[in-house]
From TrEMBL, chain A:
It comes from Pontibacter cellulosilyticus. Residues 127-154 form a coiled coil. InterPro entries: BphY/WalK/GraS-like (IPR050351), ETR1_N (IPR058544), HATPase_C_sf (IPR036890), HATPase_dom (IPR003594), His_kinase_dom (IPR005467), HisK_dim/P_dom (IPR003661), HisK_dim/P_sf (IPR036097), Sig_transdc_His_kin-like_C (IPR004358). GO terms for biological process: osmosensory signaling via phosphorelay pathway. Its EC number is 2.7.13.3. It comes from the Bacteria. This is histidine kinase. The chain crosses the membrane at residues 35-52, 64-89, 95-112. Keywords: Coiled coil, Kinase, Membrane, Phosphoprotein, Transferase, Transmembrane, Transmembrane helix.
Automatic annotation (TrEMBL), chain B:
Residues 6-138 form the Response regulatory domain. This is Response regulator. The keyword Zinc-finger does not apply. It comes from Pontibacter cellulosilyticus. Keywords: Phosphoprotein. The modification 4-aspartylphosphate is found at D70. Gene3D superfamilies: 3.40.50.2300. GO terms for biological process: phosphorelay signal transduction system. Pfam families: Response_reg.
């Protein structure tokens, strides 16, 4: 073996040209063919190396490198073949062939083993198809995105519109509130004006009645003095004096009633809401008119079970009961024992109190309005001034309530008072 | 009942004074009655009496025991006079009964009169009202 490598470049054999008998055409063909093959084989690996170097993304670069080495080795075998025509270095030639063989076989094995992997490398067509598919998908995505964008914009627009709508509604509401506030203020002012003019009127009534009192008292006193001073007046004079007395009494009563009404109005303005017990108030009123009740032999019946209180102040409640009860007894039917029934109760939004008598009744046709007016009287057979029902009506209305009357002539009368139910003191 | 040493009637209305004087005279309440038409006049009189600055022989000057006082009067009204009156010597005042006599039933007036040591009477003055007053303060 040592001898083999020592003589590796020895040319101790016959040149290969002898085999061709040095025939020019054979030598030329073999040498020419070999040289062209060699050139081709030498050029291919460089191109492969170049390709492998440039294509950084190659996954099987070593296959290219093996191919390059294998082709390079093949080229070298042809070079040796060309040389051996003249220089018989067959040992080197054999060695080169062995190297070439190892490279070829190795390459073949590697290639064979790499086949599945190489097969899995997508082809251009596949890539193109995949690319196309991707493009389609991208297009689809873009379309969807666009659609989303449109929807989004629409949403935003709607939100904007709604916001604007809300804003304008809000502004309208604010305007409305402002208008209402102005209206309310106007109402309040009107109300104050009314209250003031009411007060003025009350003051006027009070002052007028008060200023009239002194001279009336004087006239009354003077008439009495006159009576005392006159010695044996005749019948005519006495009659005149009686008329004078009557007139004075009448004007006295009117003034007294006027004062009563105006005082009531002054006081009612400062009332505080309270709950007054009907039993208690009735008891007080009964005491104050005990004589009248007894004289008339009257029977008072009550049913305050459902509602034992009225939402008004005690003084007003007394005034109401006093006026209604005295009226009931005043306008009794002479042929029967007076019977008065007081009933209280509540409906959904008001409290009521009704006073029913079995008196002479009232012909209400065209008279209902008149009944509650100041100094209006429907009967004149008994004493009265026409103030009582006026006062009752004013009291009830002061609490935002109402009074109604129902009557049958000859059978009796029912007055019903309604008071609104109030939770808080908001007067 | 012993007669009073004197009564003053203070009212701007002459007729009222006339009638009240007549009533008191007929009831024989006193021999001495004087009338004044406003608080100023009456106060000047009382001021002099309280200081003993008067002629004791003059029948027009006397120590009053009862004073009827109107509220609404020109120059000086009843309340103004009461204010001044309360500054007079207490010993002098303790023998005098002051009665506000008015036709006013105005809550403000009745309220104001409560501040003073005075009776509150409403017009017209009557035998009954005078009797009640005398029984209350001058019963023996």
């Amino acid at each position: 073996m040592n001898e083999f490598f020592k003589k590796i470049v020895e040319s101790d054999f016959m040149p290969h040209g002898h085999c061709y008998f040095w025939k020019t055409e054979i030598v030329a063909m073999n040498v020419g063919g070999d040289s062209l093959i060699m050139l081709a084989y030498y050029s291919i690996p460089f191109m492969l190396f170049y390709f492998a170097k440039k294509r950084q993304d190659l996954t099987h670069k070593y296959v290219f490198l093996l191919f390059g080495a294998f082709i390079l080795a093949c080229g070298t075998t042809h070079l040796i073949d060309m040389i051996t025509v003249w220089v018989p270095i067959y040992r080197l030639g054999g060695l080169v062939k062995v190297v070439t063989a190892i490279l070829s076989v190795g390459t073949a094995i590697v290639l064979w083993r790499s086949l599945p992997v190489l097969l899995s490398i997508p082809s251009q067509a596949q890539l193109t198809a995949a690319n196309k598919q991707l493009q389609v998908e991208i297009a689809e995505r873009e379309r969807v995105q666009e659609a989303l964008r449109v929807v989004n914009e629409e949403l935003e627009m709607r939100v904007r519109e709604r916001t604007e709508e809300l804003y304008s509604t809000n502004q309208k509401l604010e305007k409305e509130i402002a208008v209402r506030m102005v209206a309310e203020k106007t109402l309040q002012r009107k109300n104050r004006e009314l209250e003031r003019s009411n007060r003025d009127l009350d003051n006027f009534v009070y002052c007028a009645s008060h200023d009239l009192k002194a001279p009336i008292f004087n006239i009354e006193g003077l008439v009495n003095v006159l009576k005392e001073e006159m010695v044996a007046p005749d019948e005519n004079i006495n009659q005149l004096l009686t008329h004078l007395d009557k007139s004075v009494a009448q004007i006295n009563r009117t003034i007294h009633d006027l004062t009563a009404v105006s005082i009531f109005q002054n006081e009612s303005e400062t009332h505080l809401l309270e709950q007054v017990n009907l039993h208690e108030v009735l008891q007080e009123v009964k005491v104050s008119i005990a004589a009248t009740i007894e004289r008339n032999n009257a029977v008072l019946d009550t049913d305050f079970m459902a509602q034992a209180t009225l939402p008004i102040n005690r003084k007003d409640a007394k005034s109401i009961l006093y006026n209604l009860l005295t009226n009931a007894l005043k306008y009794k039917e002479p042929s029967r024992k007076p019977y008065v029934k007081l009933t209280s109760g509540f409906k959904e939004n008001y409290i009521f109190l009704s006073v029913t008598d079995n008196g002479i009744g009232i012909d209400l046709r065209g008279n209902e309005e008149k009944l509650f007016k100041l100094f209006k009287r429907l009967h004149d057979h008994v004493e009265g001034s026409g103030v009582g029902l006026f006062i009752v009506k004013r009291i009830v209305e002061n609490y935002g309530g109402s009074i109604t009357v129902a009557s049958v002539v000859g059978e009796g009368t029912t007055f019903t008072l309604r008071f609104p139910i109030v939770d808080t003191i908001d007067i | 009942m012993r007669k009073l040493t004197g009564v003053l009637l203070i009212d701007d209305d002459e007729t009222t004074n006339f009638l009240n004087r007549r009533l008191l005279e007929r009831l024989g309440v006193t021999e001495n009655i004087r009338t004044f038409v406003n608080g100023k006049q009456a106060f000047d009189y009382l001021y002099n009496i309280s200081n003993n600055n008067y002629d004791t022989t003059n029948k027009d000057y006397f120590q009053p025991q009862l004073i009827f006082l109107d509220i609404n009067m020109p120059v000086m009204d009843g309340f103004e006079m009461l204010d001044l009156y309360e500054r007079l010597n207490a010993d002098f005042r303790k023998n005098i009964v002051m009665a506000v006599l008015t036709s006013s039933t105005h809550p403000q007036d009745t309220e104001t009169s409560k501040k003073y040591a005075a009776e509150y009477l409403t017009k017209p003055l009557s035998t009954e009202k005078v009797s009640n007053l005398l029984n209350k303060y001058f019963a023996d």
